[in-house]
């Protein structure tokens, strides 16, 4: 005969205490239940009977990050008030273990700082004031958002390629899981962007003339899908389609841009910068970036200091076998594009381009074993280093890795290890952070799963959307259907649970919309980088009157 213990939020603390006292087999199972439902358990009356050892283990467990520190503080306040004389000393000890940096400034000032049990300890008061000062010094952001690097990739290089999506929480050096796109496709034509205004991640794919946009809403934690078609440039024939090369969204002002290519007859191609709507399904303004007599590739594009749009192109001339790299810079507030490579020549094929403070860093490959480095100062409007063999920053040693910059560091994820001319077929879970200024490298938390064909994107999202640890017991319980009342058997670890339905990617109807390009189109003369004396646009003259903060 089997004996079962029915566990719920009202009796789990008492059952755990009994199991702990008599060293019963149920102890581990009930503790797992408490961790899975901790956000509800600490709000129950039975939680006030918790023993100090159990409280300490829960506060210090990193996988329980899904429970807000505000809720933990409120629980501790209620717990200590049950027995002020006997529990105050424990409270002071627990308070020092709570990460106050994860609390909002408003909560710290209104609830924590005014708490009588906090004010009774000089150590607690000092810790609270020190964290409040961090907000005023700018060390902590009061907008409730945190830096996250979204990393996507595939677990194999062979078809079909299932995609995985993870979030790296920079301040906490940990990973969280994000719902995977429930489709498989070639990642070479996938473009990523993030909208700060909507807290949405956009993943755009293209098949011939059709575009498909996948949208992950952090607020709803769901994926939706929409098919659409960008209309051709007004002066072009209807038969020429736009191919998206990159998508850029400004963090401030929330302007959206699409860098797109049009392939013309006889091997010619043009590159355009389109000012797009927030949903990226239509464009309002169109600027010609470059007109080529050969096939051109949009290699990289990025935003610098939230005001410069930087584009790297690789152009193969019909009369020359050399690949020529061209870089263009445009102020978001201006119409004019400036080619900063007009007076110089970047040797080899452009490989990477990223912005760090007021500078653009570039790598360009000469051959498989030789990489050159260049740096352009956007403020001075001049090249600091050009075609240097000595590395100015550490590039990734892996093939097909993904990278993104955040503050003073470049983060590199995954890929396939290279040994000489040979590239390993197996993906890696390598993760490193490189200080761009000093060149020092630090190992960080490894990818949860080895990935290749990686892309990385730095975003800022509200903390509550990335609170869960990659091994979050609450999320695992939801995925396994075991978050409700659970039965335990001494001979069995639990009843078989039903799986939750897969994420629905098609809740938004697929409609192919012909999108108007808008009535405004700039002429080629307005975009030419000639001799216009626009003070704000003299990027290549060094006379820009921009104050440095």
TrEMBL record:
Domain of life where this protein originates: Eukaryota
Q: Does the keyword Nucleotidyltransferase apply?
A: no
Annotated region described as Disordered, given as residue ranges: 485-549
- Report the protein name in the record: BACK domain-containing protein
Keyword Cell membrane included in the entry's annotation: no
Q: Which InterPro entries match?
A: BACK (IPR011705), Kelch-typ_b-propeller (IPR015915)
Question: Which keywords are on file for this protein?
Answer: Kelch repeat, Repeat
- The Acidic residues compositionally biased stretches are 493-549
User: BACK domain: from which residue to which, for each copy?
Assistant: 12-113
Q: Name one Pfam family in it.
A: BACK
